[in-house]
Amino acid sequence: MNNRSRFLILPLFYLVLISGCKRKITENDTEQILMVTMDHFLNSSKKIDTSKVKFTVLDVLFFEDKSAYDCEFKVHLVSPGKDTTGIIAATISKDFERVNRK
């Protein structure tokens, strides 16, 4: 391999290597991660007795903003004597660590 072709192939190799490192999250993956994040948020709250109250996230509609996801979750709530389904709106950060209910 001569020097000229080496200078063309090596930068191309490094570009492919660097671009392949960060995995792109698909819309379906984002939807699943948002649902799991909200489920964890609702069922691990210290204000709620989780032995009596159980939330199940059924569906999510979301809009991706610059710094967060604006979401509406369809949630099934089961508690002693009650069984209902409703909508909860929340904002979830891009790193899926912070949840702010609206």
Keywords summarizing the entry:
single chain; 102 residues; alpha+beta; 4-stranded antiparallel sheet; 2 helices; elongated
Describe what you observe in this structure.
- This protein has one domain (26-101).
- It contains two helices and four strands, in the order ααββββ.
- It has helices at residues 3-19, 27-43, and strands at residues 54-64, 68-79, 82-93, 99-101.
- Strands 1-2-3-4 form a four-stranded antiparallel β-sheet, with helices on one face.
- It is elongated and about 70 Å long.
- The mean pLDDT is 85.
Briefly characterize the structure:
With 102 residues, this protein is an alpha+beta fold. It contains 2 helices and 4 strands, in the order ααββββ.
Write the layout of secondary structure elements.
Elements: H1 3-19, H2 27-43, E1 54-64, E2 68-79, E3 82-93, E4 99-101
Antiparallel strand pairs: 1-2, 2-3, 3-4
Any low-confidence stretches, pLDDT <50, length ≥5? none
CA-atom Rg in angstroms: 22 Å
Strands ordered across the widest β-sheet: 1-2-3-4
Shape: elongated
Termini distance? 62 Å
